Structure formats: structure tokens, C-alpha cells
User: Fold this.
Amino acid sequence: MSRRVSTVLWMLAALVACSAPQPSNDPAPPSTALATPASTRLFVTATDVPATPTPFSTTIIERYTVRNGDTLSGISARLDVAMEDLMRLNNIANPNSLKIGQVLKFTTPVTLAAPADKLLPDSQVVYSPAYASFDVAAFANQFNGHLAAYREKVEGEWLTGPQIIQLVSERFSVGPRVLLAVLEFQSGWITNPALTQNQIAYPMGLIDSTRQGLFFQMSWAANHLNEGYYGKLTGRLAAYKFKDRLRARVAPTINPGTAAVQNLLALTATWDAWQNQIGSDGFIATYRKLFGDPYANAIEPLIPPNLEQPTLRLPWNEGEMWYYTGGPHSAWGDLASWSAADFTPNDIAGSGSCLASKKWAIAAAPGKVLRAERGRVIVSLNNGDFQGNGWTLLYLHMASAGRVNVGARVNTGDRIGHPSCEGGNADASHLHFARLYNGQWMGAESLPLVLSGWTITPLDQDYEGKMTRGAETREACNCRDDAKNGIVADGNTK
Assistant:
């Protein structure tokens, strides 16, 4: 998964190893096995905004990642930035010296400022304890709307509309109430039984023939809710981008949950229309009509001050060498916090090998298995029955054969499953490992991921990163280099 974008200009990239979901493919999470994806996304870094910007006139720094076939002149034309400015800002002496994966900075003026009015608490936007007793199907069935009667084939299985909402909520860890409210606001799916063809095909208002149907539209929406939420939380999102290509600076005082909704709505609206959408008669009026006061069951703070990670061990057996092939990156989709890391067993030949490993991924801590489907295993460390409560671990790309069963209680070191390519976009078998607390993806950029005393920290790009323990250091790498990224589990659990 990935440090990708905080603006949302989609430019398709060459797919290598594990990458972000492409519009026509399964929108399951990307994660890297043996290569770092060469993306062509743009993102904004809030720390690059001047400390005291003029309210309605400032400049932000964006970044473009070079892909195969790019030239500096072509990038200049595509971004509408003078080639001389690109060369100056990026200290490029030779315009023919670009490399795939190289990150170029460029400046973009922002002349609008988004309002700071709070829309939703964070605990309504992520799949938090506020949803422990919420039943999507029961809610939808109260209305004679299109959602309750809807059916769609998803990954080879027929699902109802409520089942699709539930699946997207769990995978992206986004609250179903906010998804349902946006669905009703954009297309009336909850209460209206007679929709237009466009409302049925594009319920989120994203007119894209490669993303038709509820599953793809809701997955896209959840991904961009996460973009706004974690972009605000980490400081990577400085401006929203609108359908009319205008941009507005994110208000520095809003909470991540509000940034999530504002960001999603901006993608399919003009600046003028968006201001009405985020006003008192817009989205929030629809939310209140469906669910009442969003603060009635808010959990604040969602993440306690001074939260510490529980003790976790490396998730493979003692004496085995695995390779650190993907540094911190998005846990699901490509726009959440950098909460996941990738590890490849030493019996995987390399990129392109999707045969399930004979090695076992094992439990990093004791807990109860809540989900085991489509390569995804979710383990609750408090032995509860709800994914969004307390500490939860994600083990992704676990092969169906031999995988742990739902409801099983595992101890540290018990078998979880065999690394494979199941459950997402991957071109080599590996384990993708991530953490949640109260439904929020816990990024290594905010709370270091520690496994058997190895501390995982990110670098400037997603998928890049280091692991350190004492004087030892390993670097995430698209390689199998014992000294560079090989790690032998030694039984140390601290």
C-alpha cells in the first residue's frame, strides 16, 4: 500500500509487485512484495505550506513520481509548469537524467480557503467502537429504498447492498454511517426506490465507466475518505482539489473526520457547489435526518494520549530468514496512513511468484480471529468480537489452504496462514502486516511499529523505510539481500 496522494489527480502507473488498485480492478489493498510501485500520483505536503500563509493566496509544494516513458518536457506540459522551474526546484542539471521512481517537486498556487466548521467527530468516520452495535442491514431495511433490494456480484460472490457497505467498512476501516449518509446525499439510495440509471451506475457521483456499481463506487469513496482523514492527521494533505480544478487550502483547525468528508465531496463538485454541500443544509442535514446527532455517541479522544503499542513479535518462526520488502505504506487502499509493512519468506523466488509459501506467518500477539476471508485475517488482541475496538492486527495475503479459522483463539507464535497473493493486488507472495486501534489505522509515522525489538520507521516515500534494533539496521528493498533486508527471527519478543 502507499504514500500516494493528498490531491486526487489520477494518472495511471505501471503496475509492479503490489500497487494501488487500478480503476477497473479489485479495489483491495496494495502491498509490496518485492518491488516499490512506480506511481504517478500527486500529493500535497502540509509542512511545505508557508508558516503564515495569506488567507486566500498561498503556494503549496506537490510531488510527481516519474514513470516509465516520462520526459521532463512531457511532465512540464502535463503539469503546466515551466521546465526551467522543475529543474531549479529539483536541482536537475541534465533534463535527460530522469529515473523511474524519482520524485519531482513543483509548486501550485492556492487562492481559496476551506471553512473550519466541524462536520463529524472522528469516531463516526472511522470504524470505531461507536459502531459496535450498528447493523447495516437492519438500518437499510427500515426504508423502501434501492439499497435494501440491491444485489451485486463482488469477487465472484453475490452480495446484498448492505453486505457491500459492511464489507467496504471493514476493509477500509471506515464508518458505515458516513458511507450511508454520503450514499443518500449523492444519489438517494437509502430512501428512494426509483433511481435514474446514472444514480444506479454511479451512486457516489463519480462518472467513470471503470468504476460502475455500488462496490467500486463505495470502495473509491472509502479510499478518499481515508485520504482526507489521514492526510489531515499526518499533515500530508494541504489542499482539496475540485471538479473544476480549483483548490482550497485545508483549514488548519478542523478535525480529521471533517477533512475526510470535505475531501470526498470536493472530488465530484465545483468549488461553488461544494460550499453548499458542506453547509448546514447539505451533507450534514442528510446525516442528521438518517442518524440524528453525530456527537450523541462520539468517542473523544478516539486515540488516548500516550498510547503505547502492545508487545508484538516478528510474525514468522524462530531461525527463519524473511525479507523486509515493503516499508511503511497504506494498510488498505492506497490513501490511508502508513501503517503496514511487507515481509517475504525466503522460499519465494521473487517478483512474479504467487505460489503460496510453505512457510507460516504466525501470530505476533495473542487474540481472537474475527475475520478470515479473501486473504484477510483480522485478530482482536482484546479477544472481543468487534474489529473497531482496541488493538487489532491485519495479516493480509494469507492463502486459503491452511489459514486459521474464524473464532479461533491464538497465542503468540500460533499459525495464521501461508503467505500468498490472495486478497489484493500482489505479484509475489508475501505477508502484509498492519495495526488498528479503535478502528484507526496506526501509522508508523505517528507510532513506530515494533516487532521483536525491531523498530520500523518510514522514510520520505511510502514503501521505503528502515528497521533498526540496537546497532543493526535493515532497509526495505525490492530484493533478497541477506545483509540489506534479511531478518532472522530469534525469539526476542520485546
Q: What stands out?
A: The chain has a mean pLDDT of 87.
